[in-house]
Amino acid sequence: MDSIIKIDHITKEFKTLNRRVGLKGSFLDLFSRDYKVLKAVNDISMEIKQGEIVGYLGPNGAGKSTTIKMMTGVLEPTCGEILVNGRVPYKNRAKNSENIGVVFGQRSQLWWALPAIESFRILKEIYRIDDKTYKDNLEYFDALVGASDLYYKTVRQMSLGQRTLCDILASFLHNPSVVFLDEPTIGLDVSMKGKIRELIKVLNHERGTTVILTTHDMGDVDALCNRIVIIDKGTILYDNHIENLRKYFGAYRTIRFMFNKHGASKENETVENTMMEIDTLLKEEFSGAKSLSVGMDEKWIDVLLNEDEVPMMKIINCIQERKKIVDMTLQEISTESVIKKIYEGGLE
Amino acid sequence: MDNKRGLGFYIHLYKIILTQDLKSKMSYRADFIISTIGMVFTNVSGFITFWILFQNFPSIAGWNYYEMLFLYGFSLLALTPVQCFFDNNWNLRSHIYTGDFIKYCLRPINLFFYYMSEVFDMKGIGQFFFGTGTLYYAWNKLGIPFTLKNLILLIISFISASLFMIALMNLAAATNFWLMGSTFVMIFAFKFKDYARYPVKIFSRVFRFIFTFIIPIAFVAYYPSLFFLKPDEIPPLTYLSPFLGMIFFYISYKVWMKGALSYSGTGS
Description:
The structure holds two protein chains of two kinds. Chain A is α/β, with parallel strands linked by helices. Chain A folds into two domains: 3-247, Rossmann fold, CATH 3.40.50; 251-332, 2-Layer Sandwich (VC0802-like). Helix content of chain A is 38%, strand content 27%. Chain A has 13 helices and 13 strands. In chain A, the strands form three sheets. Chain A has a six-stranded mixed β-sheet, with helices on both faces. In chain A, strands 11-12-10-13 form a four-stranded antiparallel β-sheet, covered by helices on one side. In chain A, β8 (227-232) and β9 form a beta hairpin. Chain A is globular, with a radius of gyration of 24 Å. By secondary structure, chain B is mainly alpha-helical. Chain B has one domain. Chain B has eleven helices and two strands, in the order ααββααααααααα. Chain B has a two-stranded antiparallel ribbon with strand order 1-2. In chain B, a hairpin with a 2-residue loop joins β1 (59-60) and β2. In chain B, α2 (29-56) runs parallel beside α6 and α7 runs antiparallel to α10. The two termini of chain B are 39 Å apart. The chains are: A alpha/beta, B mainly alpha. Chains A and B meet through α2, α3, β5 and α4 of A and α1 of B.
């Protein structure tokens, strides 16, 4: 299949002023020519095929939004070339927009004071969608998520989840070949997240629409993406199938311990204290194990370890000698932990 | 198949987007009523200031009361289009500041058109009627013949005068793309409209130059009014005002678009 998006060694630089501190500093800044060049995106390349769902991940400020803005034609790369549907987005911004859809999780593009259906009608005119496609799409959306109840609700009065749902539907209305979803599930409750994931999955599957998704929610990644691209400080750290990534960290395990069913027994023995205690203990005993980390989740204390560094049984023994373990489970490494490891430099 | 989005497409789309804005406005009824009342008061108080002035001076720089009233009415009229159709310029700062401006960059239509089409300020309509009434009254009192030639002349001068004011506001608004918090530039530019109500002759040579060539506010009412009031005093430049208006508007459009395209948005 053909590539729908081709990114070839693009870099985006921003010039920012080196700001000084304090009121006097601010005043001096007015006359300053002391610029610092910041590479938001540094020499990245990738190809995305028709029909793929790509999870585009990275910590805050990694360059995700900048890349998306370049793909949508809002920003011009400092150097390098992008082709979306065979066109350079920045030079053909309007033409490019005809074939793409964009959703920003936190800001709605719908007309605030009107029912969603009115926004759809305006979009129908803007994108010159013919009557049949428009009608079919509205019926199709209704069949998928029961959207017709929402059509007549004023956007301003919608919940965040309903609004995001409508924004996503709006972005698919003109049958675009690529849809960019920037943190679509941010701030949504579990059931709405599920609904939106399902919607994206079905639209991708049945329409063959390419979806590029940025998110911080690993649930989105697990539910939707086969391929993930991880970016940090402007460079791509990883670009491959998600399964390969799990294999890479195959020797990692998470052991969950519970020391007390009610969370705390004595007054000063909170889960947090226990966690810190275990952390110090393990750091002392296994100082060679760099990947070892301790975390907590409600009543559970999670120990992440790499079996190539230290055998699991040794850790369990070590803890058992000092504390009474009430309950314990063993888990494969989760996508979340994998991504966290990569952000922290685990691939180096 | 016709792939270009032509004038017909944009006129049609403007109607659609305009209708949505009117519908939205009506859903905030109190806001609509209060702003209408506000506009009436602004106009009435402007007129009262003007009237008091003429209680004390019989004429200004050889312009009598009705001639000045003509100028006043014409300036109100010429300010109507900028008020009605380009009012969204005033929201540019907040759209840029919050990063919401990006939504205008993602549609397959002209960015400037899409942005401006989103707001239609109804207050402009009141101003239009107020201006028309004033102009009509002055026109009658001055005994200017109501001929087809004069009517056409009026329409042409009205359009070119409006273009100057629109261009001025576009340029002032465009500064927002480069400067954070440049609302004062807009307020400053908008203040100049008040000078449009006076004959340029009353100003010193320096300001006359400024108001003609740099901030061409004299084209908003003074030069066009000369056609009707002082046909023997028309400077040659006045005949070019429709073209100058178009050129000035075009420049402002280009600057605005350049700013919009260099806009990088806030991170999210």
